[in-house]
Design a protein that fits this description.
The protein is mainly α and 390 residues long. It has nine helices and five strands. Helix 1 crosses helix 2, helix 4 runs antiparallel to helix 5 and helix 5 packs across helix 6. The longest helix has 102 residues.
């Protein structure tokens, strides 16, 4: 800051000096010009001299200002370079570190982009395979035979998920009068619930392939109409009339959630119409819930049956315990009679035989003493006594 101030003061002094010199010379010249106004030659000479003097003064001022500014600038730069070095050095180190971090980040980003590109390629291949599979499935489902087998397969998976056992809880393709449902689910009360898995899907597949919105809506309405027709067919077969007892309904299984949802959207009265026709339209989720409810009913029946068997076994065990208690009491009575007889025999031995044996020993027949039997003093306890003691 001091050097810059010095430079400015010097430049200002030069400007003032140049102005003074110019005023010094300019005033006499003006007077001469005024006095010799008529002499053109003298005027031209004076004018040329003024121009030359102004040029010399300008050159001199420019040279002095340039040398002063250069010297001041060099001095300022020399002084500032040492002072700014301490400030610029940490900034340079920080910039170097930032550059290294940016390079590392770019390397990691490049690796991540490569991995992402690999995943995107794999995803694209999977999407292509899925699209091909969907196209194949779409073409296959247009065949009524394949669509029927697919519906039966889906139905079998759902009953297995519900925990049911083949030929115990259900039968597939049973032969009954008036038709053959795809499955017959046995109910706990001895009845059965018929299930049909033959749902029309041609119009729905056409709707999924349609690109125009109006054409798609028309195909979906045709799909709902086809489901109505299937409801009418099942209602005329009246499978429920062939089983007694049985709920007065037939389950119409649609093995695709989206297919059934689209039909309900296109025809909001379809469900009410089906119930009026004694047909329960179910999707995989609702059918699973229905079969779970049937399975729970079977569990309750099994628990009731087990409780009945437990009660029957308890009655029989109680009767057997009563008979055994009677036999055990008879054994106790016999033991007490034997104990009394034994104690009587011991008393008779002590009173009647021991004195005679003692006299024989006193007469010298034998020196050995005959040990006498001891009476039994332990009393037998009856069941009533054991209950009182317990």
């Amino acid at each position: 800051m001091d050097t810059a101030l010095i430079v400015l003061v010097g430049l200002l002094g030069l400007a003032v000096g140049a102005g003074a010199v110019w005023m010094l010379y300019a005033q006499p010249l003006a007077q001469r010009l005024a006095e010799a106004e008529g002499d053109a030659k003298l005027a031209r000479e004076r004018t040329a001299w003024l121009e030359q003097a102004q040029k010399q003064l300008g050159d001199t001022f420019e040279a002095l200002a340039g040398r002063t500014l250069k010297a001041s600038t060099e001095s300022f730069l020399e002084r500032s370079s040492s002072e700014l070095g301490h400030l610029v050095k940490p900034l340079g180190e920080g910039l170097d570190k930032l550059d290294r971090n940016i390079r590392e980040l770019e390397e990691k980003r490049a690796g991540a982009y490569e991995g992402l590109e690999t995943h995107l390629k794999a995803l694209d291949e999977a999407q292509r395979e899925l699209q091909a599979s969907a196209t194949t499935l779409n073409q296959a489902l247009r065949s009524s035979g394949i669509r029927g087998r697919w519906g039966e397969f889906q139905l079998r998976r759902i009953v297995e998920l519900a925990g049911m056992t083949d030929h115990v809880d259900f039968d597939e393709q049973p032969t009954v009068d008036g038709g053959r449902p795809d499955m017959l689910v046995y109910l706990p009360n001895g009845g059965a619930l018929p299930i049909d898995a033959k749902a029309p899907m041609d119009a729905y597949l056409d709707a999924t392939a349609a690109e125009d919105a109006s054409e798609r809506r028309a195909k979906l309405k045709a799909h709902a109409k086809a489901l109505r027709g299937r409801v009418q067919d099942l209602s005329r077969k009246a499978y429920w009339a062939q089983f007694d007892p049985a709920p007065p309904y037939v389950v119409m299984f649609v093995p695709n959630e989206a297919c059934l949802s689209a039909a309900f959207v296109a025809d909001d009265a379809l469900l009410d119409y089906a119930i009026d026709q004694q047909i329960l339209i179910t999707s995989p989720v609702t059918l699973l819930a229905l079969l779970k409810a049937v399975g729970y009913g079977w569990q309750q029946v099994a628990m009731s049956e087990n409780a009945r068997h437990i009660a029957q076994e308890g009655k029989e065990l109680y009767a057997r315990l009563s008979t055994f208690a009677e036999h055990l009491a008879g054994v106790g009575d016999g033991l007490r009679t034997a104990q009394d007889a034994y104690n009587s025999a011991v008393g008779s031995f002590d009173r009647r035989l021991v004195p005679s044996v003692e006299r024989f020993r006193e007469l010298g027949i034998s020196a050995d003493e005959i040990p006498g039997p001891k009476p039994v003093d332990t009393a037998l306890r009856s069941p009533d006594q054991r209950r009182l003691e317990g």
